[in-house]
Specification:
The protein is of the alpha/beta class. 34% of the residues lie in helices and 16% in strands. The strands form three sheets. It has an eight-stranded mixed beta sheet with strand order 1-4-8-5-9-10-11-12, with helices on both faces. Strands 2-3 form a two-stranded antiparallel ribbon. Helix 10 links the parallel strand 11 (305-311) and strand 12 (337-342).
Length: 367
């Protein structure tokens, strides 16, 4: 059977009450679906994306050659098998790929929100998705799966909507963002804010798409260092030098430098800088225990079968952070959770790159 890739945008006029006490109205959520929903709607699998991801998780659009970011996992006869499952991948609020974000027009005016956009949290993102599923008449799903910020969303679903999903799979994530990750985000934020072309948030988005934003590129380079690991960098680049650069030229480059430059500057032409500020803020303030007396109290809410998957050598969200969740669940007597640490030297991005190290495990979980 074909993937049956479809894209939709839903418009909501009811206010979305945010954790901060502010309101977002109206708002849009863009999402993608794959496969076919069965009669009793028991085959729905939700995919949650990471910081710079989007609803486009699998397949290719007409005229495009780049497949969705988890295309190796989602599709006919793949681990998340669209012959069996109806897969929904939504774009979070505050993003720049269709859902309402800081550069969306503020009702009733046509000017973008920019800094008037409210700070949103991971919990707010999940709440908006839950409202979307209600509208789609989907009140219980088979599984929710996400990595990194997507894993944060999956865990928030588990705590705040405990009867919504039968299974939750969270990869390469944490229960609360730690100072190390916040520090990397700080470099990116400062790099954006100090770039004169950012114009204190009043930049021309068309100019950025064409020219990029050098400050944001520098911040993204720092981010890339946290997504890889010393081992994966050594394996990928070694000490190779650019063939057409001289070793004794002041600005001659190692391959690793070229890689960071290319990815950093290219990134700024397709990802909005204000969105980057808002979503890194949401990641920084993410904490599962907020609103509860402790992490234990928060985790007591979970009733889904929970699968925690960490990656050895993940520098951004260390594997012990996932183990902490597992240990706390054991302490409170939760016997319906499973923790697996995948041996990998790749680093944080292993959940996007080294699919062969955990795809069979995903198959087993989904049965």
């Amino acid at each position: 059977m074909p993937l049956n890739l479809k894209t939709y945008t839903e418009h909501f006029t009811n206010p979305l009450y945010l954790e901060s006490g502010r309101i977002l109205e109206p708002y849009d959520i863009t999402y993608e679906t794959y496969g076919h929903i069965n009669e009793d709607k028991s085959n729905v699998v939700i995919i949650c994306h990471a910081l710079t991801g989007s609803h486009h998780a699998a397949g290719t659009y007409e005229g495009e050659n780049k497949a969705g970011w988890w295309d190796g996992l989602i599709g006919p006869n793949k681990p998340i098998d669209t012959n069996k499952y109806f897969v929904i991948s939504t774009n979070v609020i505050a993003s720049c790929f269709g859902s309402t974000g800081p550069m969306s027009p503020q009702y009733p005016y046509n000017d973008p929100y920019r800094y008037k956009f409210p700070v949103v949290t991971i919990k707010d993102m999940v709440k908006a998705q839950r409202i979307l599923f209600d509208r789609l008449d989907i009140h219980r799903v088979y599984a929710i799966i996400g990595g990194s910020m997507g894993g944060m969303q999956a865990l928030q679903f588990a705590i705040h909507y405990p009867n919504f999903s039968e299974k939750i799979i969270a990869l390469a994530t944490t229960h609360a963002t730690q100072p190390w990750a916040i520090a990397f985000n700080k470099i990116a934020q400062e790099s954006i804010l100090k770039d004169p072309d950012f114009k204190q948030g009043y930049y021309d988005p068309d100019f950025i798409k064409e020219q990029g934003l050098s400050g944001m590129a520098i911040g993204r380079m720092a981010g890339h260092i946290s997504f890889l690991s010393p081992d994966s960098m050594k394996e990928k680049f070694g000490r190779e030098y650019k063939r057409d650069d001289g070793l004794y030229e002041l600005f001659g480059k190692f391959q690793v430098e070229s890689y960071l430059e290319y990815n950093g500057y290219n990134f700024t032409k397709w990802f909005d800088p204000l969105t980057y500020l808002y979503i890194t803020k949401a990641i920084n303030i993410y904490d599962l225990s907020r609103g509860f007396d402790s992490l234990k109290e928060a985790l007591k809410k979970i009733s889904s079968e929970l699968h925690l998957i960490s990656f050895e050598n993940d520098l951004l969200f260390k594997s012990f952070e996932m183990k902490e969740i597992s240990d706390t669940l054991k302490e409170i007597g939760n016997t319906n959770h499973f923790y697996k640490n995948i041996q990998s030297n790749y680093g944080h991005d292993a959940f996007l790159v080294e699919l062969d190290k955990f795809d069979t495990y995903i198959c087993e979980i989904l049965k």
